[in-house]
Amino acid sequence: MSSIILTFSGGIDSTILLWHLRERGDTVRCLSVNYGQRHIRELTAAEEIAKLAGCEHRIIDLSNLRPLLSGSSQTSDEVEVPEGHYAAESMKLTVVPNRNMILLAVAGAWAVSTKSEAVAYAAHAGDHAIYPDCREEFASVIGQVLELCDWHPIQLWRPFIRWSKADIVKEGERLNVPFGLTWSCYKGGSLHCGKCGTCTERQEAFTAADVADPTVYQ
Amino acid sequence: MSSIILTFSGGIDSTILLWHLRERGDTVRCLSVNYGQRHIRELTAAEEIAKLAGCEHRIIDLSNLRPLLSGSSQTSDEVEVPEGHYAAESMKLTVVPNRNMILLAVAGAWAVSTKSEAVAYAAHAGDHAIYPDCREEFASVIGQVLELCDWHPIQLWRPFIRWSKADIVKEGERLNVPFGLTWSCYKGGSLHCGKCGTCTERQEAFTAADVADPTVYQ
């Protein structure tokens, strides 16, 4: 039983990770960040889910960073969200500059002030090489930074790092995760678009896991 | 000649570093952060100095992080700013949880979006062991994170790391830095208090450097 800060988007991966940690008996604090992302809808999902889980949840508004984060479709109205498969070159537009370092730094701050043992996030084996800050080497040195950022070492936990997204969905089914409350779509409409990279990946994961997908796609 | 993001507090160290980099011909963008610190006065100083230097300057308001940063005198009204020498145990109260990782992550984001070669900051040999995120090992792994956070590696520059604060003040004199515009005091009054850790250190540095200190102390 540990005290954990979970970076929590309200998507399927981090929601399943929340259920996974609760089953272990960990005390989980959920951190969501508004960094001016187009798909602000995910924060409403995060709020509902954390409430259902009975966890402390903080949404930190970092949209003031927006002037520094130019050039990404997720933080700029001038850049269209690309459709199609994640592997495509066009998905590079969805990269938010240095997002993971910022997110994990903020999670680290909360871990320092709550004397938590670890920061957890739902990185998985299917994370894509188009994101420089999803690389294994990146996570490894971030882990070292968190160990040194305070006098009590904070660990970086990535329990799903060897799992496929389908494996994660199977774990979610075992844990009775309320899939219907989670949000993935990058476009930020009232329904999942079914066409952007995250929607494509979400659909494929349910299919590969042979789990019923309750999501309503547009 | 490089393009550099400088973390810029408006204090003497980062101001002298700005002049030092300008002399080399680097293009410097100055980043200041409002993280809800008590000594908000330093941001006005930073603004004036960057203007005088003719540099692009952004002040990013991260005071939304305040609920996560409990327990520091610099971000909480309930904790008094300790007086006396930095070396004292009481100075631990001035530690803002994970501040340097957050600051360097935000600087890194701006470096990614402006395709800058480096992030610079004015760490020096006198930085204190009471701050876990001033440790050499910490800076070393942060440097590795910045190299990996984008497809173009970003360097971490700490040109003053082997200098004492007195050495830095001497460099400032050589470069005609407007010392009187800089701000150090942690208390945030209209004049430097002359008693807190940073004021004490500031006075000692001018004395040790044998440079006239134009600061008016209360």
Please indicate the percent range of residues of chain A in DSSP E strands (runs of 2 or more).
5-15%
Shape category of chain A: globular
Number of strands of chain A: 5
Element order of chain A: H for helix, E for strand = EHEHEHEHEHH
Q: Measured on Cα atoms, how large is the radius of gyration of chain A?
A: 16 Å
Task: Give the overall pLDDT of chain A as a whole number.
Answer: 86
Helix/strand-derived category of chain A reads alpha/beta
Oligomer: homodimer
Tally of separate helices of chain A = 6
Strand order of the largest sheet of chain A: 3-2-1-4-5
Give the helix proportion of chain A (percent range). 25-40%
Poorly predicted spans of chain A: 72-76, 86-94
Termini of chain A, distance in Å? 41 Å
Largest sheet of chain A, in brief, is: 5 strands, parallel
Largest interface pair: A-B, 39 and 39 residues
